[in-house]
């Protein structure tokens, strides 16, 4: 049996809204509309989709915060909404947009409280804390109140907090949102190491396809509460014929770069944008551009999730929306 198992999982919300002066209309929102998948122990899976697709609702059911209105769900053999407390000992959750840390307390006091709340044996707590402090470089931050931490520091603090009780599965909801490039790289590196060393199962929700590319061998795409794709990221790019962008900073303004395998998109002074298929490697293209042009800098941008998904269906998301109405 997979470690995480969903079978035709559903969640419907009933919302009331005003439909005139005295009348209220009841409307059903199918946030999760019959999703089935299995995740094996030790897998690192991306769970992506446009805003309002149903990602957070799924995660909330996986943690037991929300009760499904249909279907079946098991995490480590446990029914989350029935045995939420027992499950809490085995899972860790990090929400990028919210903190589980105590705002006014120094970081280390939040950890002490977690120690007691989760009844973590002393030796294990020490060991886990030391490891997280070292790998997430938290040493100098332990005495700082959480409200004084930068977003990247707070995120690292939150990830440590979620791991002190040795969870077997970690849910991460937008763990790199708003972080600068260096902080993103640190968080990704840590998660990769955690997965390799501890075998922690990770389910990752993100709007940043680079997170997926660097961390997950498998990605699931959800839209309108349904699973639209389950497979490798490369396969998703192939289905959507998506393109990555090479942003080239030249020493001076030059005519459009013309290299095989890429398409000139636009120029702004000495900066040029070239598009190339997301399924091919950037390395030969970078080598070719660097060999024949005076370069200052280069970067590769992943397509955004909305574009990839829209292309997957053919046509734009708005066109598709209209066809659904
Ligand atoms: N408590 C609730 N009551 C009513 N509707 C809800 C509730 N929570 C979520 N929804 C609706 O369910 C749908 C799915 O929402 P959900 O938050 O799961 O999406 P999401 O994929 O996490 O989006 P985002 O990327 O914006 O966080 C949306 O239409 C949302 O408005």
Automatic annotation (TrEMBL):
Compartment annotation: Cell membrane
Pfam families xrefs: ABC_tran
SUPFAM superfamilies registered for this protein in UniProt: P-loop containing nucleoside triphosphate hydrolases
Domain of life: Bacteria
Domain ABC transporter, chain residue ranges per copy: 4-249
Membrane topology per record: Peripheral membrane protein
Keyword terms: Antibiotic resistance, ATP-binding, Nucleotide-binding, Transport
UniProt KW Nucleotide-binding keyword: yes
MF-aspect GO terms: ATP binding
Main location: membrane
Parts of the chain that traverse the membrane: none
InterPro entries recorded: AAA+_ATPase, ABC_transporter-like_ATP-bd, ABC_transporter_ATP-binding, P-loop_NTPase
Listed PROSITE patterns: ABC_TRANSPORTER_2
Entry protein name: ATP-binding cassette domain-containing protein
Higher taxonomy: Bacteria, Bacillati, Actinomycetota, Actinomycetes, Kitasatosporales
């Amino acid at each position: 049996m997979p470690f995480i198992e969903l079978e035709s999982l559903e969640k419907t919300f009933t919302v009331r809204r005003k439909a005139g002066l005295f009348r209220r209309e009841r409307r059903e929102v199918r946030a999760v509309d019959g999703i089935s998948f299995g995740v094996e122990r030790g897998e690192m899976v991306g769970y992506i989709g446009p805003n309002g697709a149903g990602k957070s609702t799924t995660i909330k059911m996986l943690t037991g915060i929300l009760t499904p209105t249909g279907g079946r769900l098991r995490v480590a053999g446990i029914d989350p909404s029935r045995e939420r407390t027992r499950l809490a000992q085995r899972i860790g959750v990090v929400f990028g947009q919210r903190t589980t840390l105590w705002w006014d307390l120094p970081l280390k006091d939040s950890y002490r409280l977690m120690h007691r709340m989760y009844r973590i044996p002393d030796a294990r707590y020490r060991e886990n804390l030391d490891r997280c402090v070292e790998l997430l470089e938290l040493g100098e931050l332990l005495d700082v109140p959480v409200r004084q931490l930068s977003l990247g520091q707070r995120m690292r603090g939150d990830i440590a907090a979620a791991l002190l009780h040795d969870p077997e599965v970690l849910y991460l909801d937008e763990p790199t949102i708003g972080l600068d490039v260096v902080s993103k790289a640190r968080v990704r590196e840590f998660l990769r190491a955690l997965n390799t060393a501890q075998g922690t199962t990770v389910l990752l929700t993100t709007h940043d396809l680079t997170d997926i590319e660097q961390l997950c061998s498998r990605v699931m795409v959800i839209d309108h509460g349904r699973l639209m794709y389950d497979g490798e990221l490369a396969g998703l790019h192939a289905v959507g014929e998506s393109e990555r962008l090479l942003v080239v900073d030249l020493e001076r303004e030059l005519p459009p770069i013309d290299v095989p395998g890429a398409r000139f998109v636009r120029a702004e002074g000495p900066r040029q944008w070239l598009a190339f298929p997301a399924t091919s490697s950037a390395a030969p293209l970078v080598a070719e551009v660097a060999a024949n042009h005076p370069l200052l800098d280069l970067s590769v941008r992943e397509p955004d999730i909305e574009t990839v998904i829209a292309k997957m269906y053919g046509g734009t998301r708005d066109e598709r929306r209209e066809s659904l109405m």
